[in-house]
Amino acid sequence: MTGTLAIWHEPIEEQSVRRGNLAPGEVAADCPTIELHINLWRDSGLHADFVDVGIKIKKGPSLKRLLLFVPAQLQTDQLLDLSSVLKHGTSLNAVFNDLVEITDRSEQYFDTRLGRAVTRIHSIDLEKDITLEPVEIDVLEIGTVISFNREFCDRFQGEHDHYIRFLSYCSEPAFVQLGDYSKRVVPPAILSKHRVNRV
Questions:
Q1: Which one, of 144, 177, 133, lies nearest residue 70 by Cα?
Q2: 2-4 and 175-177 beta bridge pairing
Q3: Cα within 13 Å of Cα(34), Cβ side
Q4: Which residue has better confidence, 111 or 46?
Q5: pTM for this model (two decimals)
Q6: Phi, psi dihedrals of residue 89, rounded to the nearest 5°
Q7: Cα separation of 189 and 191, whole Å?
Q8: In 44-170, at which residue ranges do the beta strands (DSSP E only) sit?
Q9: Which segments of 122-176 does DSSP mark as H helices, in order?
Q10: What is the predicted pLDDT for the residue at 193?
Q11: What is the pLDDT of residues 78-115, one digit of tens each?
Q12: In whole angstroms, what separates CA 156 from the centre of its chain?
């Protein structure tokens, strides 16, 4: 897997159009703040690479869909929801690099507290909550758009942050370019279909 990751959202309400790019570090008032956490793992024994993806959605406007482009062709059986692993204190503390307390549990989520900050960690039903869309990157190169649907994004409500984490198995070596890239490195099929203005 070689290429660029991209994350974006579709708003429920039409957002105000702003010409030009935002200044570095500037966030548009009508956009949510989203953090993307990535770990690359290599299992030499299995000759396999794993991409561990965490997405933190901070308080902000409601989302219609949340989308993530991965420069590899994926199937649902190559993905694994990690929320059940995070219910164990050691894993949870490692992810947030601090002592985190679990304060509330339900079937679809559990709440954590670090000081006064509350983060809700959501379970992902890979059959119901997401769709995978293959996207042509180049000749003989296919990527995937992972789309979290409206029903799933409706869970991102309340006066706290929200977090999802999943693992993707890659059958080829993983190398992903990370940085603040402009949309010119995103496959044109994504730019035209999803009207991505800034990634």
A1: 144
A2: parallel
A3: 24
A4: 111
A5: 0.80
A6: -55, -40
A7: 6
A8: 48-57, 63-70, 79-81, 101-105, 109-114, 117-122, 130-138, 141-148, 161-170
A9: 150-153
A10: 67
A11: 999 999 999 887 888 888 888 888 898 888 999 998 88
A12: 13
